[in-house]
Design brief:
Oligomer: single chain
Number of helices: 12
Order of helices and strands: HEHEHEHEHHEEHHHEHHHEEE
Radius of gyration: 22 Å
Number of strands: 10
Shape: elongated
CATH topology of the largest domain: Rossmann fold
Distance between the termini: 51 Å
Largest sheet: 6 strands, mixed
Helix content: 40-55%
Number of domains: 2
């Protein structure tokens, strides 16, 4: 039971810190079922309640049956409190992003109702490596290269240092028949191509250990990101975020200034995740390339304008901005 032991050791510190209950997001795949099994084994002697949340996205035929099968498997693992959340995926952008948004909205409902100490997610080292490569390919900046955080508020990813082969081995050890998501074999998805084609090619050409190396890269970049975020928050803490001095902004290192501007825009009402580099560039130009530009319109009805040596961040509800 070597693989199972590795997973139990990964979740043990979190169960030890829990006071009453924890929750787990479960898809029915090997990663989430292996995590659920490890949590159940660690939680039972500690008298910690475990709530499993199975989200039925309704994106495939018989998705309801997949959810019911996962529920049955979880009950066999000793988790009696299983919630199936059926969601409507609104396809605003890509299907992956839209499904993720719906899934986390379901998680938030459970968190609000049941108040778990932690909500566990089953992302592995493989998921982290894929995220780093996707961020690199998209030119998304350091936050994307930093990958996923192990802890993000109430959400905890205890398996980020464990490869998918270990979760699959743990399922085999415990005779868990995990669901194989057909989306994970569909090469029309960029992440699937990274998983099935690019990472294996890198392993072949550059040698083994690529997945672990990408995980280490994410951890190192995350340290830098956290430091820069800290500098930006310190600057905002002593400023009025809706009216920032252009002179003081110009004195900041570019990496810190970009973070200050993003945070000021979000605080003014732009939706989280709505800003791209293209949105930020004209705001940056109000500081570094000023020649009398007018108001900059941004998502969420946010308007940014340079007035008397200051950047004004205002929200005009109902205003439309270029996406």
């Amino acid at each position: 039971m070597k693989a199972t032991l590795a997973l139990r050791q990964a979740v043990r510190p979190w169960i030890a810190q829990a006071e009453a209950r924890v929750a787990i997001g479960v898809s029915g795949g090997a990663d989430s079922l292996a995590l659920a099994a490890a949590v159940a084994l660690e939680a039972q002697p500690q008298k910690i309640e475990v709530i499993a949340v199975v989200v039925d996205h309704g994106l495939q035929e018989s998705s309801d049956q997949v959810a019911l099968t996962a529920k049955s498997q979880l009950e066999q693992l000793g988790i009696s409190y299983v919630i199936i959340k059926r969601v409507q995926v609104e396809r605003v952008d890509g299907i992956e992003a839209s499904a993720r948004r719906a899934r986390y909205a379901a998680f938030e409902e459970v968190i609000k109702e049941h108040q778990p100490d932690y909500f566990f997610l089953a992302h592995t080292l493989n998921d982290q490596a894929e995220s780093v490569l996707l961020g690199l390919a998209r030119g998304s900046g350091s936050k994307s290269l930093a990958g996923m955080q192990e802890v993000n508020g109430i959400y905890v990813r205890p398996l980020l240092g464990i490869e998918r082969a270990t979760t699959e081995a743990a399922c085999a050890e415990q005779k868990i028949d995990a669901w194989q998501d057909p989306h994970n074999e569909d090469s029309s998805y960029t992440r699937v191509r990274v998983r099935k084609e690019i990472l294996p090619l890198m392993e072949k050409l550059l040698g083994p250990g690529i997945i672990a190396a990408l995980g280490r890269t994410a951890a190192l970049v995350r340290q830098d990101v956290q430091a820069l975020d800290g500098y930006a928050q310190a600057f905002l803490a002593q400023s009025n975020p809706s009216l920032l001095s252009v002179e003081e902004l110009a004195d900041l290192p570019a990496a810190v200034r970009a973070r200050v501007l993003r945070e000021a825009i979000f605080r003014a009402g732009a939706p989280e995740g709505s800003l791209s580099a293209a949105h930020l560039a004209p705001v940056e130009a109000l500081i570094t390339d000023w020649h009398g530009q007018g108001v900059i319109s941004l998502p969420g009805g946010v308007k940014v304008e340079r007035i008397s040596g200051r950047l004004s961040f205002l929200n005009q509800p109902g205003g439309r901005a270029p996406q």
